[in-house]
Amino acid sequence: ERERERERKTERESERESFSPGEMHEDCVADLPTCLLCVCLTGSVYCEEVLPLMMSVPTLPKETAYLYARFNMIEKISNGDFADIVTLKRIDLTGNQISEIEDGAFSKLTLLEDLNLSENRLVKLPMLPDKLTYFNANNNHLKTSGVKANAFKKMTKLRNLLLADNRLEAVPFIPDSVRIVHLQNNNITEVNVNTFCKSNDTYYLRPSLSEVRLDGNPVMLSKYHDSFTCMNVLPVGKYR
Q1: Would the pLDDT of 31 be above 80?
Q2: 41-75 pLDDT, tens digit each
Q3: What share of the chain is helix, strand, coil (3-state, %, to 5)?
Q4: What is the mean pLDDT of the chain?
């Protein structure tokens, strides 16, 4: 009996060693620092103008659907920043110092619909989720070489494509679903029949496209009158 008691005691001690209250506590409060710095509501995290200014994406509660981390000092978005937050539907990173986003940073965000990267320092775009309906990268340092030819090609639900105040030399591919395109104040010098329409399909129409801004670019739109025949509205821009 004493031998069996010693065995049971050894088992209990082994169980206590394998169970660490400290580890459990760490898991339970892992989200607490972010929610002290920021405002955490059900499904939403507001980290706007956090003092001292936030330098990186904070650890988010796993049920986060909406992140607003505007006007901080975030410089880089890494692949691991959102990898475990698959519930995200909206990310707003306006007004940071972001100059680099790793190519897989948004790859696991299959529910993401709204992505705002405006007023940063981006020179190229990462891979973007196909389900985006709103994408804003206004006021960055983007050149055409930093935007892949198929960057928006699979975005069949995209409605707003905002790329104003960059350094683009050409109009990127624009999906049929897009309604509003802002490309003002870039370095676009020309358009062609395939920029908005299709040269091999005279019946092709873009009924959804209601606003195209090309003002503030060098391109003289009056030279390309055949390039807008599929559209209900003419682009805003220079005609003379």
Answers
A1: no
A2: 989 999 998 887 789 999 999 999 999 999 999 99
A3: 20, 15, 65
A4: 87
Among residues 223, 203, 202, 204, the alpha carbon closest in space to that of 214 is found at 223
Instruction: For domain 116-239, say whether CATH 3.10.20.600 is its number.
Output: no
- In the numeric block, which tokens belong to residue 55? 């330098």
**From residue 142, how far is each of 2, 120, 206 by CA, in Å?**
76, 10, 26
3-state secondary structure of 3: helix
Q: Determine the distance from the C-alpha atom of residue 17 to the mean position of all C-alpha atoms in its chain, rounded to a whole number.
A: 44
Reduced to 3 states (helix: H, G, I; strand: E, B; else coil), residue 17 is helix
Q: Residue 194's closest CA among 150, 146, 226, 160?
A: 226
CATH superfamily of 37-112: Ribonuclease Inhibitor (3.80.10.10)
pTM metric for this prediction: 0.85
CATH 3.80.10.10 in the chain: give the residue spans: 37-112, 116-239
For residue 226, give the nearest of 193, 189, 188 by alpha carbon: 193
Q: Give the residue carrying structure tokens 């986003």.
A: 101
